[in-house]
Design goal:
The chain is of the alpha+beta class and 145 residues long. It has a single domain (6-138), classed as Electron Transport, Fmn-binding Protein, Chain A (Pnp Oxidase, Chain A), CATH 2.30.110.10. The chain has 3 helices and 7 strands, in the order αββββαββαβ. The protein has helices at 6-9, 52-59, 95-109; strands at residues 18-23, 29-34, 37-39, 42-48, 62-72, 78-90, 125-138. A 7-stranded antiparallel β-sheet has the order 2-1-5-6-7-4-3. A hairpin with a 2-residue loop joins strand 3 and strand 4. The model has no long low-confidence stretch (mean pLDDT 93).
């Protein structure tokens, strides 16, 4: 297990969205754009239980996350972070914890104090926690070469 490197944590403090890639039952990739934050060594996001990504992760917890940086690398390409790991899904039935997470993310992504979407406080929402196993991409968090 590995955590999110210090140099990459700033990507989860701004408004960069994360792309979460899961595996559909037939093995094809399924990609979703999500709001995400770092908690300890893990990545965390909220979702509705009914979403395909949640069903995929309950069946197969392997996941890849991609975040594009707003900075260019010295070689001229846009920096990006890739995280490969395993996900665990908490909920549904955790409306207070889901609301706290989504309020925090709404402050960052929307500049509002409260998560304004209709599923606020939803008893059908879940929290997905990704434990990183491998870090890659292009940036100060990646190995040279």
């Amino acid at each position: 297990m590995t955590g999110i490197p210090k140099e990459a944590r700033r990507l989860f403090e701004g408004s960069a969205h994360a792309t979460v890639v899961t595996a559909n039952p037939d093995g094809s990739p399924q990609a979703s754009l999500v709001w995400m934050r770092v908690e300890g060594d893990d990545l965390v996001f909220g979702a509705e239980e009914r979403r395909r990504k949640v069903a995929n992760l309950r069946r197969d917890p392997r996941v890849t996350v991609l975040v594009q940086d707003d900075r260019d690398h010295a070689i001229g390409l846009v920096q990006h972070l890739t995280v490969t790991g395993r996900a665990s899904v908490e909920g549904p039935g955790i409306p207070e914890r889901y609301t706290e997470l989504m309020d925090d993310l709404a402050r960052r992504y929307l500049g509002t104090e409260r998560y304004p979407m209709p599923n606020r406080g939803s008893g059908t929402a879940v929290i997905v926690r990704i434990t990183p196993e491998r870090i890659g991409g292009l940036g100060p968090w990646s190995a040279p070469g």
